[in-house]
Amino acid sequence: MFKQYKLKNYKFILIALVVILNTIGVALVGSASPGDQKKQIIGMVSGIIIMLLVSYIDYNFILRFSWLIYLGAIGLLGLVIVAGEQSKGAQRWFKIGFNRAARIMDQLEEAGIVGPEEGTKPRRVLMSPEQFEQYEEEYL
Predict the structure, then answer these.
(1) Helix (H, G, I), strand (E, B) or coil at 49
(2) Any alpha helices (H) in 10-122, and if so which ranges?
(3) Best CA proximity match to 87, nearest among 97, 102, 72
(4) Which residues contact 30 (CB under 8 A, 6 or more apart)?
(5) 100-121 b/e (C-beta count within 10 Å ≥ 16 → b)
(6) Are 44 and 37 in contact (CB under 8 A)?
């Protein structure tokens, strides 16, 4: 299953390029939303570790399971159709994380609490605090 590599034949330049590209991506995400940078770093480190582990597996071993990998990918795409949610012309995955927040914002827009989406600008709040308290007492 694991192929015996000689360290001199390992392609360290590929790992270096992946690390460089990931670092640029983390920096860009950090400049856009600093709160998400920690998640990006965790994803980058875990992705590089998984990449290194998979690189030691003989590709012939992986090829034996290619049909299973293919069926798994088709199954996940089927889950998007069955369990996903369509909003603004895109089929969303599941109601967790960012998609859940997007769904909540859609509901707030339908209720008239916030204004429509305007690109990357923050949404405009359409209710005063008093109106929101009244709405909360009536509907929640």
Answers:
(1) helix
(2) 12-32, 37-55, 59-64, 66-83, 97-110
(3) 102
(4) 36, 37, 40
(5) eebeeeeebeeeebbeeeeeee
(6) no
Average pLDDT, the chain: 82
- Phi and psi at 88, nearest 5°, equal 55, 40
Tell me the one-letter amino acid at 95: K
Report the SS3 class of residue 1. Answer: coil
Are the CB atoms for 26 and 37 separated by under 8 Å? yes
CB atoms within 10 A of CB 68: 9
Predicted confidence at residue 125, as pLDDT, reads 87
pLDDT tens readout for residues 76-104: 888 877 876 666 666 555 555 666 777 78
pTM of this prediction? 0.49
Nearest by Cα to 43 from 22, 61, 74, 62? 22
Answer yes or no: are the C-beta atoms of 49 and 60 closer than 8 Å: no
